[in-house]
């Protein structure tokens, strides 16, 4: 092809004459803009946009995508503006060109860990470009494919850098969008660039193996064709070529020898309808025995990228394994073109196909993750799972199929159904039996989520797999942490101001506004959050807000009873593990940067050095309506006796206290020391438990452990 006339002739087979003329006009516009520019190969620069358009023509892309392909470098390389392109070719084409131009500036090559954030930010930009118009990424992939085809003119180090970027970023995206042909070519060309010694060796080994097995392959192919003819089933049998990179990857990942990988014969049978696919499956299972557990039905349950086919493995002649894929003509084209088949098979009603719908849903999920991610590194961590999935397929109670990455849990499933279902998830049933939320799901299971008005548990982050679940849990916890930090910050500031006879509500707005300007906060809630997190001291903020004649800290400070602790403050208030305070204990607070307030018993040695520092030390008291259970440690000395642990456990649970941990050590031949962590409501509850434990005959001593 390689001329605009040849391309235009081919385009006229599926585009209107007016649309073909627009593509021509875009070509001449690009040729004029790039006039005098050469590629490294010495060819005129416009040959590259033309080649990109040819790749898109093979996918029957629309005229706007082809125009964007012609113009994709003009903004970056010729000084023409986006507005100039918009004036000539309209807003849609200008947006596509602008999106591709921004992607051209992305640099994924940074290897140093300090540059990881740059790479992650670049991927975020790519997600945004895809969200605006998914054709942007198709033009970019075609651009990258032509660059890979002409990579040999570059220096070796640059070739390796671009190949690494292609195999790490662009090949997985092509796979996720169902562009099998793109992915294979990306991987094969990258493999030759990255492993210039291994690639020719594996190629030579494949050539030798193919020569030795040619007769066997022909025998198996003939047997399959005869089987179809005998059963009167339409279909063509094709030998499936194993790609060098996939052979290399299997050898490396599965730790298998070359012979083990290539001993498998692979065939594809392409037929006319789904019904015939299943009839052919029955026929080949009659011809050769199927290998147990090696059948996959991707027609009934398509892969996440829209791929459909029947996969089966058979014991062929002489016990040689034969892999067979059975699919329709349309599925075969879809396997190669994925999302692009939306344009390749556009129907009269212009409805997108399943692959296109799935791709759009994936991009929407990317956007949601991006919105909730704290930073770009967190975003890329969420996305990695979605780019490299081994899928499992599970069912909702109503029979809807959900595809999830292997290793997903019921919590991942809940978030896949809907964010609100995930946030409110409390329990689940797998195949009608109650199961833990952390149990990995298996293909074919039916999962039912039991939801309540609760909120995500931070512990879920230790077992969820999908990016959507992880990003939503983190987002919720951040929002919750912020509201708790604001509430605690307000209480701390008001407590300090009350020592001077003031309250935040009575401070003039100008004074608050001046302080916000001075501290670079936009709103008061941001300042209160900073106080609640312990990054800024309430004492210092209060002093800035008070009038100049407010004086020093009044002696009445301690008499006012301190800040009330209710037990429901949440993430920003923690109870020190060194002294384990419980309601009824005299308590004080220590402000820790980033962690909020830590509650200690007043006599705790760890806060002694801060007693005279009003910036970090705050007087506290228990609210009369304090709620919850609080951990406390007991040390029990007992004489050796059979069943003592059971007696001890009965005594404690009889007092409505929970045992959280228990350890036992021998002090000597007669006495053992039992260390317990209990959950109690207050000091009175603890006293009742200790009294009950002392009544046990073999108990010699009970004491509460502090510090």
Strand and helix layout:
Layout lengths: L3 H8 L5 H17 L13 H12 L4 H9 L2 H4 L4 H8 L1 H14 L11 H17 L2 H15 L6 H21 L3 H15 L3 H33 L5 E4 L4 H10 L4 H5 L2 E7 L2 H14 L1 E2 L5 E2 L12 E6 L5 E8 H9 L3 H4 L9 H19 L3 H12 L3 E5 L5 E5 L4 H8 L1 H5 L1 E6 L2 E3 L11 E5 L15 H32 L10 H11 L4 H9 L5 H8 L17 E3 L7 E3 L11 E6 L3 E6 L15 E6 L7 E10 L4 H11 L3 E9 L4 E10 L2 H12 L4 E6 L3
Parallel strand pairs: 2-6, 12-16, 13-15
Antiparallel strand pairs: 1-2, 3-5, 4-5, 5-6, 7-8, 9-10, 9-11, 14-15, 14-16, 17-19, 17-20, 18-19
What does this structure look like?
It contains 27 helices and 20 strands. It has 5 domains: 4-194, Hypothetical protein af1432, CATH 1.10.3210.10; 198-344, Beta Polymerase, domain 2, CATH 3.30.460; 355-469, Ubiquitin-like (UB roll), CATH 3.10.20.30; 475-622, no CATH class; 630-704, ACT domain (Alpha-Beta Plaits), CATH 3.30.70.260. Strands 1, 2, 3, 4, 5 and 6 form a 6-stranded mixed sheet that branches. Helix 4 (63-71) packs across helix 9 (135-149), helix 18 (354-372) runs parallel beside helix 22 and helix 22 packs across helix 24 (524-532).
């Amino acid at each position: 092809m390689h001329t605009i006339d040849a391309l235009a002739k081919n385009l006229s087979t599926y585009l209107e004459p007016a649309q073909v003329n627009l593509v021509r006009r875009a070509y001449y516009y690009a040729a004029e803009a790039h006039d005098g520019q050469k590629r490294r190969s010495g060819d005129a620069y416009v040959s590259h946009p033309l080649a990109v358009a040819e790749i898109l023509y093979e996918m029957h892309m629309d005229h706007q995508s082809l125009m964007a392909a012609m113009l994709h470098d003009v903004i970056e390389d010729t000084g023409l503006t986006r507005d100039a392109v918009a004036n000539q070719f309209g807003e849609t084409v200008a947006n596509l060109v602008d999106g591709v131009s921004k992607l051209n500036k992305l640099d994924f090559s940074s290897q140093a860990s300090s540059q990881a954030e740059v790479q992650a930010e670049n991927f975020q930009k790519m997600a945004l470009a895809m969200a605006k118009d998914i054709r942007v990424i198709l033009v970019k992939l075609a651009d990258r494919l032509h660059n890979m085809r002409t990579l040999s003119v570059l220096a070796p180090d640059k070739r390796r850098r671009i190949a690494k970027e292609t195999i790490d970023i662009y090949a997985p995206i092509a796979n996720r969008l169902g562009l099998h042909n793109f992915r294979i070519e990306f991987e094969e060309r990258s493999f030759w660039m990255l492993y210039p010694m291994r690639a020719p060796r594996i190629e030579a080994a494949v050539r030798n193996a193919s020569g030795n097995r040619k007769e066997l392959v022909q025998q198996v192919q003939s047997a399959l064709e005869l089987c179809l003819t005998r059963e009167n089933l339409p279909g063509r049998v094709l030998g499936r070529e194993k790609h060098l990179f996939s052979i290399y990857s299997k050898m490396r990942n599965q730790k298998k020898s070359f012979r083990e990988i290539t001993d498998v014969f692979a065939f594809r049978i392409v037929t006319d309808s789904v019904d015939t696919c299943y009839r052919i499956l029955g026929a080949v299972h009659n011809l050769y025995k199927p290998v147990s557990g090696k059948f996959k039905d991707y027609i009934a349950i398509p892969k996440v990228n829209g791929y459909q086919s029947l996969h089966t493995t058979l014991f062929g002649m002489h016990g040689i394994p034969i892999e067979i894929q059975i699919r329709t003509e349309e599925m075969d084209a879809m396997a190669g073109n994925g999302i692009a088949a939306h344009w390749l098979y556009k129907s009269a009603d212009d409805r997108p196909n399943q692959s296109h719908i799935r791709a759009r849903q994936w991009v929407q999920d990317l956007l949601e993750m991006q919105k909730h991610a704290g930073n770009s590194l967190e975003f890329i961590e969420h996305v990695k799972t979605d780019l490299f999935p081994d899928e499992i397929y599970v069912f909702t109670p109503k029979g809807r199929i959900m595809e999830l990455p292997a290793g997903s849990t019921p919590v991942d499933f809940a978030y896949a159904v809907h964010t609100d279902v995930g946030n409110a998830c409390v329990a689940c049933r797998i195949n009608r039996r109650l199961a833990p939320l952390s149990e990995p799901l298996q293909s074919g299971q039916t999962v039912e989520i039991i939801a309540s008005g609760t909120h995500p548990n931070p512990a879920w982050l230790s077992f969820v797999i999908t990016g959507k679940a992880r990003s939503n849990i983190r987002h919720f916890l951040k929002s919750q942490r912020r509201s708790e930090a604001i509430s605690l910050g307000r209480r701390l500031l008001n407590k300090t101001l009350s020592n001077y006879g003031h309250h935040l509500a009575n401070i003039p707005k100008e004074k608050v506004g001046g302080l916000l300007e001075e501290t670079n906060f936009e709103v008061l809630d941001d300042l209160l959050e900073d106080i609640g997190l312990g990054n800024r001291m309430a004492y210092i903020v209060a002093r800035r807000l008070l009038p100049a004649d407010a004086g020093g800290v009044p002696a009445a400070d301690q008499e006012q009873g301190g800040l009330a602790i209710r037990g429901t403050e949440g993430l920003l208030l923690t109870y020190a593990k060194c002294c384990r305070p419980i309601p009824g204990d005299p308590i004080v607070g220590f402000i820790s940067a980033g962690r909020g307030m830590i509650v200690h018993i007043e006599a705790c040695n760890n806060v002694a050095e801060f007693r005279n520092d009003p910036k970090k030390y705050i007087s506290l008291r228990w609210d009369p309506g304090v709620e919850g259970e609080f951990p406390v440690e007991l040390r029990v000395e007992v004489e050796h006796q059979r069943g003592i642990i059971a007696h001890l456990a009965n005594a404690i649970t009889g007092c409505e206290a929970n045992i959280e941990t228990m350890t036992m050590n021998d002090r000597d031949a007669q006495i053992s020391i039992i260390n317990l962590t209990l959950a109690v409501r207050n000091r009175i509850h603890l006293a009742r438990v200790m009294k009950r434990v002392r009544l046990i005959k073999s108990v010699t001593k009970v004491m509460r452990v502090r510090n």
